[in-house]
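Contributing new records

If you add data, match the layout below exactly. Sequence lines come first and carry their own label; structure lines follow with theirs. Keep one chain per record. Anything else will be rejected by the validation script.
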Amino acid sequence: MDIRSLEVFKAVAIEQSITKAAEKLNYVQSNVTARIQRLEQELGVPLLYRYHKKVSLTPAGRELLPYVNKLLYDFEEAIEAVKLSSTPRGTLHIGAIESTASTRLPIIFTNIIRNFHK
């Protein structure tokens, strides 16, 4: 099971059409159909009822959809969390001997705070 197949499943569930989902995702219809079939094979259950030009979710498909939504949300959130940004993040650890820490660091921290609030 891969993330793209889950995205395809979600698009099909929303559009209620393999053709419309393929158009929305800029995929060919056969690719969408193949991904859904592969997902159904991996899970061992049908996810869609297929009609002439529409589809609807089976009970298993309805049960899977909220998990797919959460997985896709978490996936996007994980990508955003690790993207490089121009703003440094995380904890800064500073080590200094006591005399330096008491005489020089307060001035440095004051200047940093002033510049931060500008």
